[in-house]
């Protein structure tokens, strides 16, 4: 894929346009295979939606990518050559894989602006001890992110006063401040109002092509909104059951069976 070079893959070898390649990953819990020879790849700049019934292995997959869970077998390539299964959680985070959990974890007593500023200062490339005041470029980045997450008017508001949806957007903004090479979002619209869900879809659509994203979500209307022409992967019993456009997977009899057969 030609967009690889201008995306934030900084230094990672993505010469074939693939940011993540899971190869034959198996995770066993007391003999039960939560992931069963899972193979999946994601392109640089792609927004990949992952769906699947409860217990399909979606969370376990993200745990493997972020180093929280070690697979019994298989490899997880970040770019062409880096095998994540040999790295610690901290090393993986440092390599630029950001993860957003379902519950927002913003600093409630700090303003929206300060939350973004703090997120940037955890970026190892910024040297907070040398530059105690923000430079113009950093202020620009914060302003751009405020715009993107539509919280510009609330920049001075303590994060604790935001709605649930606004907190989720702020947390996405905080992750973006660290310029992740790959962003994993776990059920980003859980608990949101319809209007917030719609707005989150617009936000993620704006990130498509500029960032590489994996979004796990149960809300099918939302997945339809963000999948666009992109691929949706259906997990079932720890493996890929189907993959393709939203329309294709929705009309796939095997997918209908696992959703309706429960
Ligand atoms: N630490 C664990 N010990 C034992 N079994 C586990 C553990 N973690 C997950 N499992 C099992 O592995 C399977 C996959 O779980 P996982 O949470 O990855 O699925 P999921 O697709 O994220 O489901 P949901 O949509 O409900 O969040 C489930 O059957 C779950 O009970």
Automatic annotation (TrEMBL):
Keywords tagged on the record: ATP-binding, Nucleotide-binding, Transport
Domain ABC transporter: 20-262
One GO molecular-function entry: ATP binding
The organism's place on the tree of life at top rank: Bacteria
Protein name: Urea ABC transporter ATP-binding protein UrtD
Source organism of the structure: Candidimonas humi
Gene name in the database record: urtD
């Amino acid at each position: 894929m030609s967009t690889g070079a201008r995306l934030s893959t900084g230094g990672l070898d993505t010469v074939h346009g693939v940011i993540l390649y899971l190869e034959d990953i198996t995770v066993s819990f007391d003999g039960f295979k939560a992931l069963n020879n899972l193979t999946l790849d994601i392109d640089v700049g792609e927004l990949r939606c992952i769906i699947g019934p409860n217990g399909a292995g979606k969370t376990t997959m993200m745990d493997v990518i972020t180093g929280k869970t070690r697979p019994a077998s298989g490899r997880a390539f970040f770019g062409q050559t880096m095998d994540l299964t040999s790295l610690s959680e901290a090393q993986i985070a440092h390599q630029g894989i950001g993860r957003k959990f379902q519950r927002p974890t913003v600093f409630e007593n700090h303003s929206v602006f300060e939350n973004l500023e703090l997120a940037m200062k955890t970026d190892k490339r910024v040297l907070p001890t040398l530059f105690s005041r923000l430079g113009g470029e950093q202020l620009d980045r914060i302003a751009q992110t405020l715009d993107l997450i539509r919280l510009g008017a609330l920049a001075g508001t303590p994060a604790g006063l935001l709605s649930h949806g606004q907190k989720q957007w702020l947390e996405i903004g905080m992750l973006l401040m660290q310029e992740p090479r790959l962003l994993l979002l776990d059920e980003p619209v859980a608990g949101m109002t319809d209007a917030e869900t719609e707005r989150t879809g617009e936000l993620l659509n704006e990130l498509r092509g500029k960032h590489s994203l994996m979004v796990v979500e149960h809300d099918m209307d939302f997945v339809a909104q963000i999948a666009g022409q992109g691929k949706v992967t259906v997990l079932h019993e720890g493996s890929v059951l189907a993959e393709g456009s939203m329309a294709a997977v929705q009309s796939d009899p095997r997918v209908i069976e696992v959703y309706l057969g429960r």
